[in-house]
Specification:
Blueprint lengths: L40 E2 L1 E3 L2 E3 L6 E5 L6 E6 L3 H21 L2 H17 L1 H12 L3 H22 L3 H4 L21
Parallel strand pairs: 1-5
Antiparallel strand pairs: 2-3, 4-5
Helix pairs in contact: 2-4, 3-4
Amino acid sequence: MSETTETTYKPTSPNSKLDFASVWEYDPAPESTDHVEVKEKYELFIDGKFVKPSKGRYFSTTNPATGKKLTEFAEATQKDIDKAVKSARKAFEGEWSELAPKTRGKYLFRIARMLQERAREFAVLESMDGGKPIRESRDVDIPLVAAHFFYYAGWADKLEYAFPGKTPEPIGVCGQIIPWNFP
C-alpha cells in the first residue's frame, strides 16, 4: 500500500485521503450585470407619466463595489409629492375605487408576477446600488417585495368577509418616505 505526500491539507486523522487544495479558491460572481440596463437619469413618475422634478435637481447613486456612478434620480420636492398624492387621490376616487375587489386583486397579483419575472434583474440592481451581497438581494429582498403584493392581492376580495358586521373602508392615499437600502 503506497501513500502520497502531495496533500496540502493535513486532516486530524493521519490515514485520511481528503484533499482540500482546490476547495478554497474563489468562484466567479454568481450574477453578471450584463443583462441589466441602467438609464443615465430617472425622472419622477406622476399622473401616469415620467416628469422632471419641479426644481430640476437630481442626486447620484454610486456602486459601492466599484465607486462608479450608476445613475441619477430626480429629487422630489414638497410640490412634486403633493402633485403625486393628488394624482393618486384622483385615481383612487375615480377609476380604482370603481373596480371590483377581485379586479384590484388581479392588478396586485400581476405586479407580484412581474416582480418575480424580473427578479434577477432587480436583485442585481439592488446589489449594485446598495452594496449588499447578491444572495441577500436575490433570496430575501426581492422575493419579500413580491410576497407583499401577493399577500394584498389575496386579501383584495376577502376584506368584506374578514370583519363580520363591519364594512371595511379604504383609508386613502399618502406620500411615503421609504428606506433607500431596502426595496
